[in-house]
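Exercise 7b. Backbone tokens:
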């Protein structure tokens, strides 16, 4: 009897999902999980044929790069291995996907080691070679998405259509060793802080977000008629990043300092750190009115009013003019001495050094791309002597609460840091220019307290954002592979996220041959600062009371 080929088995599973399972699924989280399962199965089907040839080609081109590096480093010829013998080529032709993927893993590791050795040279060849290796690592992730598979049931009349393809990845799966917050555990925690008369009426996990778990919590006191809505933000049992503001306790402290201003952000209330029976730190905060208008991937489809976009500019201006003295206690607790006095250049130099140490200290997958990106960032830190400002780091409509034409709150401060105002400004440029002129947006930003903008900082700031994202998803992929993290959403790193962000990094850092090739719109220069009566370099040193007066004056 003929054994069913793997491709047929996978096609049958996909057919069952589309025709038998999907029509019966009603909850949003279950539909999200089903969409991710289907995407995973399609990729497994690709691995039966087209992905094998793609991976073989990647291994061959990667081996060429490895030999080139060995020649440049003048390592012993014995280390270079056979130069494409017919026996090796024949052996490669008969390997399946799993064998080729192990070769790819080993080749990636060796290339990364060679990249590290070459990065010490700091010459023109090194920069070019590291970029070529980064582009090589992108190839598999980007090209695998373009591969087509033959699903035998596609021409059948009972195929329900492509509705499952548009399902959003909103499902959070917790592994068997995880102990997420429960109604009883949050009730005991809140009672220990607020008294035993408190009761939790509802506690449920919310969808969305890759970095943290978010819960809605409705509480009521026995002697009070009104209820209170809380939001609980918690790290995963094995966080994808444990550095800087990505740590829940550090984000909590930053928001506490920010809550002393009138900037619209969640107000943190209680911090749960080391709570018995709970597998990660968490904190409670007030629930803001409004709704989040988009996911990260859906931002490009948003239709926004001018008033709402200008409100975005206003909040960015307000954020970047907050005096850093407000965060003195926070900085004393989490930063090195003298952090308040660092220039933008000094700040990024310190930050990149910190990220390097973190990646070396915590297990991550070998990645020539990350090695290249670190090297590029270190070689291109802006020569910017201005004082740093508070930046959100992920400021866009997927992290904003909206009510009509007003922004009622800015969420998710884990990427917040002190750096260049361009870190946030360039992040919204693509969205803003779909709705209004860039010059109009920047003028309103400046009138709202914003700093003068240096367009020359844009490529670095975009690449720096990519660095943090790539570190996070590198770690998430590793924990998936080890089985310690069973969140199926992180499979999407391989199926699209990696390709998108790796391509972004290469695009932002590509050499600009002429002014016409610039990837950013022309911007006002520092000399065109509209605040003639205020020295913008002194905003970071302004007292809280003067800051409030200043914001009121520029807002009117």
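Sequence design result:
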């Amino acid at each position: 009897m003929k054994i069913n080929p793997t491709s047929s088995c996978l096609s049958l599973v996909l057919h069952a999902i589309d025709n038998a399972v999907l029509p019966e699924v009603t909850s949003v989280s279950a539909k999200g999980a089903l969409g991710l399962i289907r995407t995973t199965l399609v990729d497994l089907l690709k691995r039966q044929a087209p992905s094998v040839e793609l991976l073989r080609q990647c291994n061959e081109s990667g081996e060429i790069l490895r030999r080139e590096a060995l020649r440049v480093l003048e390592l012993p010829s014995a280390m270079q291995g056979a130069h494409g013998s017919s026996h090796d080529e024949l052996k490669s032709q008969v390997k399946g996907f799993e064998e080729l993927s192990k070769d790819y893993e080993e080749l990636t590791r060796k290339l990364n080691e060679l990249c590290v050795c070459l990065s010490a040279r700091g010459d023109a060849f090194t920069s070019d070679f590291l970029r070529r290796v980064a582009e090589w690592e992108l190839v598999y992730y980007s090209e695998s998405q373009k591969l087509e598979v033959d699903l035998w049931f596609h021409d059948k009349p009972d195929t329900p259509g492509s509705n499952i393809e548009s399902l959003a990845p909103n499902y959070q799966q917790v592994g068997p060793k995880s102990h997420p917050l429960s109604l009883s555990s949050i009730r005991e925690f809140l009672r220990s802080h607020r008294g035993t008369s408190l009761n939790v009426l509802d506690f449920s996990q919310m969808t969305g977000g890759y970095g943290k778990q978010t819960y809605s919590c409705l509480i009521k006191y026995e002697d009070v008629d009104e209820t209170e809505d809380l939001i609980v933000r918690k790290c995963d049992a094995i966080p994808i990043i444990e550095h800087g503001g990505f740590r829940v306790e550090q984000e909590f402290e930053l928001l506490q300092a920010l809550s002393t201003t009138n900037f619209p952000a969640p107000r943190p209330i209680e911090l749960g750190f080391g709570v018995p029976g709970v597998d990660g730190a968490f904190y409670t905060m007030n629930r803001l009115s409004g709704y989040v208008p988009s996911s990260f991937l859906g931002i490009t489809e948003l239709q926004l009013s001018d008033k709402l976009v200008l409100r975005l500019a206003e909040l960015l201006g307000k954020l970047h003019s907050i005096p850093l003295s407000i965060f003195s206690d926070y900085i004393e607790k989490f930063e090195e001495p003298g952090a308040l006095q660092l220039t933008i250049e000094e700040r990024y130099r310190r930050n990149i050094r910190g990220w390097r140490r973190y990646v070396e200290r915590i297990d991550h997958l070998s990645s020539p791309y990350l090695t290249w990106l670190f090297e590029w960032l270190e070689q291109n830190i802006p020569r910017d002597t201005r004082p740093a400002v508070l930046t959100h780091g992920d400021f866009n409509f997927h992290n904003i609460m909206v009510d009509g034409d007003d922004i009622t709150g800015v969420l998710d401060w884990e990427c917040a840091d002190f750096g260049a105002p361009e870190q946030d400004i360039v992040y919204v440029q693509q969205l803003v220019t779909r709705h209004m002129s860039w010059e109009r947006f920047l003028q309103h930003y400046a009138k709202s307290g914003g700093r003068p903008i240096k367009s020359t900082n844009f490529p670095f700031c975009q690449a720096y954002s990519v660095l943090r994202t790539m570190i996070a998803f590198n770690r998430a992929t590793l924990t998936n592979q080890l089985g310690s993290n069973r969140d199926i959403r992180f499979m999407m790193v391989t199926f699209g996220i990696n390709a998108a962000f790796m391509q972004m990094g290469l695009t932002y850092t590509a050499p600009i041959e002429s002014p016409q090739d610039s990837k950013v719109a022309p911007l006002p220069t520092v000399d065109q600062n509209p605040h003639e009566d205020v020295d913008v370099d002194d905003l970071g040193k302004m007292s809280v009371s003067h800051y409030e007066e200043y914001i009121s004056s520029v807002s009117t």
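Instructor comment: Residues 82-87, 152-178, 514-556 have pLDDT under 50 and may be disordered. The first strand starts at residue 198 and ends at 205.
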